[in-house]
Specification:
With 357 residues, this protein is an alpha/beta fold. The protein is built from 17 helices and 7 strands. α3 crosses α12 and α12 packs across α14. The longest helix has 15 residues. It binds 3'-phosphate-adenosine-5'-diphosphate. Belongs to the sulfotransferase 1 family. This is Sulfotransferase. InterPro entries: P-loop_NTPase, Sulfotransferase_dom.
């Protein structure tokens, strides 16, 4: 297989770098490189390009490359990371509500007026819009987000040892959620993708930020190596035990709930503020628009059913078995289980492996 251009490991000199007074990062600098990357259009209108082993949406690629080159991490940055459709919106809301709880009363909280994606920006998309200064202007501590896999994160995040919270979800439910989301991106003139076609593409790893298993595994292994810096969560356990997870999140973030706060019900208030029912009842999430130019998205597209197991309404048991089998094979030996697939836990994380961070 032909070697793919690598900006991550050995950044090439960019034309504008080092030039005094020049715009440091016109996104067009990357167009030539991007046009050489393998292209897939099965998820149209989304076009995905294979970059360093992952199918990255083309519209996120300029931002990804720009971010890899220019993003400056701060030691107290907190990253909320995920494969798409795995619980990002919820986790963003929770992390933001936990971090800002002393700043705002819950009845007057920014999450009542802003979508969680506005409170916690997606850095590569912000860079794609040429608005990197917005990220640089954020006061510390920043909560930041991307769907990039661990191996594609900018080097400064790794070298500064920033804290990371990763959420994953049953791939079967991820696929269903992604299918609805992607169909919502299609103009009326386009038919929805047949679910069977989406299923096959997903199983082949051909999907935005896919393959999902490699994405999840990179962060899982990182969380095993450095649990104090990488917190690995599952959407399903957030649904089952929100109280335990929210307390764990606060501890990990370095702002645990005090006994007084617990007594006063602050943990429950955070959970309530970020709940599916609460967020979907808010005007901003019913009618607000997403800050992504050229994409016809409204904030309500981040909320659909908000539960586990909807795959049962979309897949035959044969399809479910096939996807579970792939998950099992991909995760074998990692000690990780996904979607109720009992993968044999063995002492699989090879301590000699090169850490991704
Ligand atoms: P993103 O990758 O576009 O940011 P993400 O938030 O990761 O999407 O995933 C969306 C899913 O989370 C949707 O799942 P569904 O399609 O199966 O319903 C959405 O409904 C669900 N979701 C969003 N907010 C919440 C919440 N507060 N609680 C539980 N689930 C939520």
């Amino acid at each position: 297989m032909a070697a793919q251009p690598s900006l991550c490991n050995s950044p090439p000199p960019m034309e504008s770098q080092g030039k005094k007074g020049a715009d440091p990062r016109p996104p067009s600098n990357y167009t030539d490189l991007i046009s050489t990357l393998p292209l897939e259009e099965g998820w149209a209108p989304m076009r995905n390009r294979k970059y360093q082993g992952f199918w990255i949406p083309q519209r996120a690629l300029t931002g990804t490359l720009d971010m890899q080159q220019n993003f400056k991490a701060r030691p107290d940055d907190l990253w909320v990371l995920s494969y798409p459709k795995s619980g990002t919106t919820w986790l963003k809301a929770l992390a933001y509500a936990i971090m800002t709880r002393a700043q705002y009363p819950f009845h007057h909280h920014p999450l009542l007026r802003q979508n969680p994606h506005e409170c916690v920006p997606m850095v590569d998309r912000t860079y794609s819009r040429g608005q990197a200064p917005e990220i640089e202007a954020m006061p510390s501590p920043r909560i930041l987000n991307t769907h990039l896999p661990c191996s594609l994160l900018p080097h400064s995040i790794k070298s500064l040892d920033c804290k990371v919270i990763y959420v994953c979800r049953d791939p079967k439910d991820v696929l269903v959620s992604l299918w609805y989301f992607n169909n919502g991106l299609r103009p009326q003139s386009m038919e929805p993708i047949p679910f069977t076609k989406a299923f096959e593409m997903f199983c082949e790893g051909n999907c935005p930020y896919g393959p999902i298993w490699e994405h999840v595994l990179e962060y899982w292994e990182e969380s095993q190596r450095r649990p104090e810096k990488v917190l690995f969560l599952k959407y399903e356990e957030m649904l089952e035990e929100p109280l335990r997870i929210v307390k764990r999140l606060a501890e990990f973030m370095g702002c645990p709930f005090s006994p007084e706060e617990e007594k006063e019900g602050v943990v429950e208030e955070v959970i309530e503020l970020c709940s599916f029912d609460k967020l979907t009842s808010l005007e901003v999430n019913k009618t607000g628009k997403v800050l992504l130019p050229s994409i016809p998205l409204t904030n309500d597209s981040f909320f659909r059913k908000g539960g586990a197991g909807d795959w049962r309404n979309h897949m035959s048991s044969e399809m479910a078995r096939k996807l579970d089998r792939i998950t099992e094979q991909k995760l074998e030996g990692s000690g990780l289980t996904l979607g109720g697939v009992a993968v044999k836990a063995s002492a699989a994380i090879n301590g000699d492996d090169q850490a991704l961070f």
